[in-house]
Amino acid sequence: MARRVCSEERAWIEVLSVGGFSDAEIAKRLGRDRSTVWRGKKCCGAGAYCAVGAHAGADAGAKRPRALKLAADAGLRREVQQRLDERLSPHAISAELAPLGQFVCAETIYRLYALKRGLGCLWGSATG
Question: From CA 92, how far away is CA 90, in angstroms rounded?
Fold first, then answer.
């Protein structure tokens, strides 16, 4: 898994860029790929690279956990629960609901089933 560029590395990119170093030279000093440095500098636009602004932008754009589809849709959750009560498997539930225009993958059902069994209080507000 790729690791994010930390604020200290961004500061070095800023200092070395002002010092006239190329993206490849900066990347070598940081132990990064040059495309990582290039992308970081490109997101700051045509002006000078700003480490603080780049880090704030990266934080704002970072992927955040989203609510499970079943936590957000009470009707779909009821349909899934009814079928779980009938002892259908998550794969069978997913296959049954798809022709009805209610799309939910088996993994989502497994996650919610596990949360309900272990942590019932999270049933309506689960994320993951």
Answer: 5
d(C-alpha 2, C-alpha 40), whole Å: 14
Q: Residue 5 and residue 36: Cα distance in Å, rounded?
A: 8
C-alpha–C-alpha distance, residues 22 and 41, integer Å: 11
**With left for phi above 0 and alpha for psi between -120 and 50, is residue 6 left, alpha or beta?**
beta
Question: What's the pTM?
Answer: 0.49
CB distance 32 to 41 below 8 Å: no
DSSP class per residue in 35-75: HHHHHHHHTT-SS---HHHHHHHHHHHS----B-HHHH-HH
Centroid of chain to Cα 123:
21
Task: For residue 123, give the 3-state DSSP assignment.
Answer: coil
The whole-angstrom separation of Cα 121 and Cα 117 is 10
pLDDT digits (tens, 9 = 90+) for 28-75: 999 999 999 998 888 777 678 888 888 888 877 776 666 767 778 888
Nearest to 65 by CA among 103, 24, 122, 11: 122
Q: What sign for the dihedral angle of Cα 15, 19, 20, 22?
A: negative
